[in-house]
Amino acid sequence: MNIKIFDVYNIRARLSVYIIIIAPVILTLYAMYEPVRSFSFSVVFIAILCAFSNYLFALQRYIQKDKIYGNTTAKYLYLEDGHINACTKKRYYRKLSLMDEEFSIFDTPTNSIEFKEACASAIQWLRNNTRENRLVQEENMLWGFYKNLLNLKIIGIIFSIIAIIILITISLLINMKDFFLFFIKYGGTYNRYILFVILGFGS
């Protein structure tokens, strides 16, 4: 039985983003709170992180539900677009027309709506049929990482603020503890010294 929790894409494009986002809180706890560094806590925390990553993925999808991404790649194939030179476009048109008989429209490129729709269809066809290509996979993972990082930046800011609050709170608690320990240890001697000074000056 082959059990896979995360494939390569999920690890590089999603899980790594989630770890970066919550890292400020985790590193703060590890640095300031010693019990967190135990092996048992780390194991439990990793399990919670894996489960929490599913929530972040769902949250990301919810944030993106109304966002529309334009097909920029298809626009590069438009006859009037200047991002790709004419010679290169001709080579692309010829290659596309040979890939599938439905792309015969690329033999006679125009500025018509039908041709632009064919460009969008061709790009989608290429995406669907080149997913297993190693270079395409690498670019997809990089794009996924970049897109997920941008979409969840607000969550990252919130976690950073939480980390700062935790850092300040723990620092204050540690300082107060040190103060009380110092007062308990030296408070009696200090009070006697003050009393001696007062009485000495008074006499």
Can you summarize the main beta sheet?
A: none
Strand percent estimate:
under 5%
Structural class label: mainly alpha
Say how many strands there are.
0
Measured as a percent range, the helix fraction is over 70%
N-to-C terminal Cα separation, in Å?
Answer: 91 Å
- Please tell me what the overall shape is: elongated
Question: Uncertain regions: pLDDT < 50 for 5+ in a row?
Answer: 193-199
| Overall mean confidence score, pLDDT | 76
> What is the N-to-C order of secondary-structure elements (H for helix, E for strand)?
HHHHHHH
Number of helices: 7
CA-atom Rg in angstroms: 31 Å
Would you give an account of this structure?
There is one protein chain. With 203 residues, the chain is mainly α. It is 76% helix and 0% strand. The protein is built from seven helices and no strands. The protein has helices spanning 8-32, 39-64, 72-76, 86-99, 113-129, 134-151, 153-202. It is elongated, with a radius of gyration of 31 Å. It starts with 7 loop residues before the first helix and ends with a helix. 8% of the residues are buried. Residues 193-199 have low confidence and may be disordered.
